[in-house]
Amino acid sequence: MNAGFGLIVSQGRVADRTDGALRGARATADALGDYLGIEPRVVGTPSPSLTDDWSAALPAAHDTLRGLRDALGTAMDAGQTPLLVTNTCAASLGTLPTVAARHPDAVVLWVDAHGDFNTPETTESGYLGGMVLAAACGLWDSGHGAGLDPEQVIVVGGRDIDEAEAELLSAAGVRVLPPAPDVAQSVAELVGGRDAWIHVDWDVLEPGYIPAAYRVPDGLLPHQIAALFSALREQVRGVELAEFEYGDPKVPERVSVELILETFQALLH
């Protein structure tokens, strides 16, 4: 792994249905920037959350998604390891096609309680964030590209998956690893010596550690994410950290940011 990170933070609404994730992304990026001694590249301008259908949220996020794509390409061109801090998983609509083009042999680890593999035909909620991985794998056209090989995708910690979504995941050849004590070892064995791109949605964790908009019980623990980072340290070609819901009164923001920072440090030591 290149020790020179390109730190990118998404600050434009991308289907946000709450206001906390934009603030969480900014707080996380500022802490990572201070730790690494680099200035985050900010993409987008915050706007209020809105519960809208994917068909409205997608065009509204157009400029932010293009900005994230361009920022990612710039970091890669500079030989940096991209470190993206995003508000929602839907922001990856702008990044995963570039990952597929630049690192076609990389395994994409989608560390998330959800599969995010719905399509416009299967989605029950109309939420864009639940459709992002399917778009990157070419199951529907987001307008921002595709190219990801689903057989090179592993959903790690997935446990809240719709029935129709599960059928799509299975048919496409995406592996789903539910939470387990030895999940980091299992992932490392599946990845082998290949490059890896790691996306983490903090709702993959057991609720109570890092707040996320969706609380799904029986999740992974922070040390398991750190173990995953540590096991793949030399193979990681980029990292995305998403969905930290800043402002949860049950968990002080300072505690969550410190935990994210400690987890990230497993990539370095």
Automatic annotation (TrEMBL):
CDD domains, alphabetized: Arginase-like_1
Superkingdom per UniProt: Bacteria
An example Gene Ontology molecular-function term: arginase activity
One GO CC term, this protein: cytoplasm
Protein name in UniProt: Arginase family protein
Organism encoding this protein: Microbacterium tenebrionis
Keywords: Hydrolase, Manganese, Metal-binding
PANTHER family assigned to the protein according to its UniProt record, in alphabetical order: ARGINASE
Family as reported in the entry's similarity comment: Belongs to the arginase family.
